[in-house]
Design goal:
Elements (H helix, E strand, L loop, with lengths): L2 H50 L2 H22 L5 H27 L4 H18 L11
Helix pairs in contact: 1-2, 1-3, 1-4, 3-4
């Protein structure tokens, strides 16, 4: 593989790893903060509905609060693996940094491209090992 192809490959891998890290961190962030926000909003709407909403709007408010409850239940499925998402995000960010360093080494022509690509393959194996594949269930495989 020539230098330009290696740089394109590394840029693609770097993008994928960086995106994966951000996705894991965002899942962690949502699981960490959303239940509190949903609880606050539910309480606030419940209190406001006692005073300001008439009979015609009460059913709409109760539907809205019920939907909030369903969203909260869905998010709660991720709670047991919340810390796994954080740790995975940290590990993927480290891999991203190592890929960036490999990119710069290849670009500077101080390293042999093929030996650096072997190192990149090891980093990608590490990436796949540290990723949480089944994000929809909140469990790692």
């Amino acid at each position: 593989m020539d230098k330009q192809e290696a740089l394109k490959l590394l840029a693609t891998h770097g993008y994928n790893v960086g995106y994966g890290a951000k996705k894991h961190f965002s899942t962690y962030d949502i699981v960490e903060k959303a239940p509190g926000a949903i609880s606050f909003a539910s309480i606030a709407f419940g209190i406001l509905s006692l005073k300001y909403f008439d009979q015609a709007l009460e059913s709409h408010v109760s539907v809205f609060l019920t939907l909030f409850g369903v969203v909260s239940l869905y998010i709660s499925y991720y709670l047991p693996s919340k810390d796994k998402y954080k740790q995975s995000g940290v590990e993927l960010t480290k891999i991203f940094s190592k890929l960036h360093a490999s990119y710069l080494r290849i670009k500077s022509e101080t390293h042999e491209v093929n030996s650096e690509l072997e190192h990149v393959d090891e980093l990608m194996d590490e990436f796949y090992k540290n990723s949480i594949e089944k994000e929809s269930r909140g469990q790692s495989t």
